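Predict the structure of DUF5753 domain-containing protein.
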Amino acid sequence: MSRWIDFRMERQRVVTGPTKIAAVLDEAVLRRLVGGPSTMKKQLEHLGTLSRRPNVDIRVLPSELALHAGMDGAFTVFSLPPPYPAVAYIENLGGRLYMEAPKSERFVRAYDRLTEAALDVHASAELIAKIAEELS
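Done. Here is the predicted structure for DUF5753 domain-containing protein.
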């Protein structure tokens, strides 16, 4: 377990580099009080700080959306420089799986649909700040 925590902590360092990071978060995960109100407020404030970085794009799917392309679970898409195709990554109770083209293409399309359905970057940042403020 410690190895996975170390891996995830190392992944967070990517944010400070030139790599572009784009995420679409369901509003429900921003409202779920993991660790209690104080911890959640700090995490939301951290997201707000990250969202101001030029290489970070955070968008929120508002809870008013009944159905969306991410209903089957979380996934990550790694867009690589040409000639390499995108790679999709899923992690769940069944394990961890990387998928290359052509299987990764459906994840790329799903991500595009999620981005279209989500609030824009500025409205997302405002919603994240509002939810954090509600925890005060």
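The radius of gyration is 16 Å.
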